[in-house]
Amino acid sequence: MKYKDHIEAVANLQPDFLGFIFYNKSARNFDSIMPDIPKSIKKVGVFVDEKLETVKETIEKYNLQAVQLHGNETPEYCAQINNVEVIKVFSIKDEFNFDVLQPYEKACDYYLFDTKGKLPGGNGYTFNWNVLKHYPSTKPYFLSGGIGLNEIESVLSFLRRQESQYCYALDVNSKFEIEPGLKNIEELEKFITHLSIRT
Q1: What is the tens place of the pLDDT at every residue in 82-104?
Q2: Strand, helix or coil at 88?
Q3: Torsion angles phi and psi, residue 78, rounded to 5
Q4: Which of 1, 52, 123, 174 is least buried, going by the fewest C-beta atoms within 10 A?
Q5: Residue 23: how many other CB atoms lie within 10 Å
Q6: Cα 120 vs. chain centroid, distance in angstroms?
Q7: pLDDT band at residue 174, thresholds of 50, 70 and 90?
Q8: Residue 69's beta-bridge partner residues?
Q9: Is 31 exposed, middle or buried (0-12, 13-18, 19+ CB in 10 A)?
């Protein structure tokens, strides 16, 4: 399947967001032509400590509706990205100091909590979601990190708990990959179907 066709196949599943990684060190780096995607799906550019000017140019070039920032971007950096939604990523393992979120409260639209690992995203395993019992904010967040078909029961259990109150979206990636950047469409469809039926 051609890459363009593959993206369109993922888009046909009608996710709310569709991510494109703009990070040269990633095997998933996007450097292709952007296919037509339904306007109901927000195109998200994923960046890691990229120059602010480059981020803005990429937003304009690909008509992105959101950016996901996986590096050490400061609140001041985030606040300078205008006219798109800003998702700031924080990595967690077994504990997390939520005080670091406070400076970002007005600088971004969402937080994303991912698993702390060797790579800035796509490490393929979950963090301890119990940490989110201490989430102090009312800002909606994305839950990420190693979520796949085998995690459906864990996800459903989490979504029934108080700490999921501000969980806005699930971010899935590596557990559904055939190879970096290419998703298993059938497994993605199963995941979406199971969650839709059970929630």
Answers
A1: 999 999 999 998 899 999 999 99
A2: strand
A3: -60, -40
A4: 1
A5: 20
A6: 11
A7: confident
A8: 47, 88
A9: exposed
pTM over 0.90: yes
Distance between CA 101 and CA 108 in Å, rounded? 10
- Amino acid at the residue 178: I
Cβ pair 171, 146 in contact under 8 A: no
DSSP for 91-128? Answer: EESS---GGGGGGGTTT-SEEEEEE-SSSSS-------
Which structural domains are found in the chain, ordered by start? 3-198 (3.20.20.70)
What are the two backbone dihedrals, phi and then psi, of residue 19, each rounded to the nearest 5 degrees? -95, 145
- Could you list the beta-strand ranges (E) of 12-97: 17-21, 42-47, 66-69, 85-92
Distance, in Å, from the CA atom of 135 to the CA atom of 86, rounded to the nearest integer, reads 19
Nearest C-alpha neighbor of 113 from the set 5, 100, 188: 100
CA pair distance 1, 118, nearest whole angstrom: 30
Helix axes 185-198, 3-11, angle to 10 degrees: 10
Residues in the chain: 199
Question: Side chain identity at 105, as an amino acid letter?
Answer: E
Which residue shows structure tokens 């992105």? 64
